[in-house]
Amino acid sequence: MRTSMSRWTAREAEFLAVTLRLLQQHGYDGLTVEAVAADAKSSKATIYRRWPSKAELVLAAFVEGTRAREAPPHSGSLRSDLLQIGDWFCDQSGQHASTVRAALTEVSRNPALGAALEDAFVHRPKLLVADALVDAADRGDVDSRVIVDEVCDLLPGYLLFRYLFSRRPPTAETVRALVDDVLLRGLTRSPPSL
Fold this sequence. Notes:
Blueprint: E1 2-3, H1 10-30, H2 33-39, H3 44-50, H4 54-65, E2 69-70, H5 78-107, H6 111-139, H7 149-165, H8 172-187
């Protein structure tokens, strides 16, 4: 179940959608406010009144483009929850991989953009995985000691790597193999004694 609330007017959302599309096509350095204004049939002044800089426009566009929030699945099965999270994350990453690649060049100069990227592609999916693990621990399906950052990072981290840095984008089979052959095997074994 997805929830999504935009804070922008329809016209502002249009500017942001144009910005994302042009960012994907031309990269951050090739994106201009002039091109956004021309494509949206507006003036630069109108855009600059709302977003005083290109960096603020790109940040708003990225946040708007990735604002759909995924609610935790709560299916009653850890495997089903992880598969649903993996499929959702593949959809999100597939839709936004070129945007993320384009924005990565600006992250070192724009900490707010870096934080937005981290929230959308690291923090949110990690919370979903952690929630699924807490549910599984509450049911007695896994030991609560397995709910650690590294485990929660594994599914979204690997899938994002495949989208951004590999020439092999993940598929539903990738998600299934990662869940069945790596995560569930590791999570359902008793952790070693300390």
